[in-house]
Amino acid sequence: MADLSFLQRLPGTVDAIDRAYEAQRQPRGYLGLSQAGHECPRFLWYAHRGETGKQPEGRILRLFYLGEIVESMVIADLAAAGCEVTDCQREVEFTQGKIKLRGHIDGIVKGLAESPETPHLFECKSASKKKFEELLKLGSYKLWNEIYYWQVQLYVFGLHLKRAAVFVYCKDDSQLYMERIRLDKEATEERLRRIFEAITSPIEPERACPRADNYKAKFCPYHEVCFVPRKAPSPENWLW
């Protein structure tokens, strides 16, 4: 029988689309506030120093782009409901000496039915049906995703606001979850202290995952550099 295995995986249009996304992507090269709530000090250390790690494939990049489209849809929906979203992509920055942590917000929303006069940080995420139902079951944005939660807290703190309004859009059936989150000032200040402590360490901080085969470690973009011995990066390449 003839071997037709070569027909099972021929490069096609979808591959070309994915490769185009990958070619256009520019690695961030710094620790953004969207990542700063990560539980692992070593992850923060690598990101701050511009370690690129494993880059997302085209399919994942298309998911990121879909998230941007969803965000625009939710902003339009809020406008239709009488709300106003301003300050889209406004930068938030924290500094310690020469070290800077920065990120860009989705916006600031005013006119929410729950508190019409209070400006809220506007944060929008999208999720699969499975993840969305997990959020509904938990009923807590913080319990659902701590990195997202700390991103919100850092932005609210940096903008001197008191509240955030987070929206999560279900990509399967367009359900929309909203939660108002109050600033936890003391906890956020402590979180910032720990972040700066991690990224200013002269050596790699302790990792959160004890073993290379830990399920979280396997999905970490820094898995290889974290668990494979290598030469330390030159100090002149560090971003501080």
Describe the structure.
The chain is α+β, with helices and mostly antiparallel strands. The protein has a single domain, classed as Lambda Exonuclease, Chain A (Alpha-Beta Complex). Helix content is 39%, strand content 18%. The protein is built from nine helices and seven strands. It has a five-stranded mixed β-sheet, sandwiched between helices. Strands 2-3 form a two-stranded antiparallel ribbon.
Work out the helix count: 9
The global form is: globular
Point out poorly predicted stretches.
none
> What is the number of domains?
1
Based on secondary structure, the structural category is alpha+beta
Radius of gyration: 20 Å
Mean pLDDT: 90
The CATH class assignment is Alpha Beta
Strand content: 15-25%
Q: N- to C-terminal separation? A: 63 Å
Task: Going across the biggest sheet, name each strand in turn.
Answer: 1-4-5-6-7
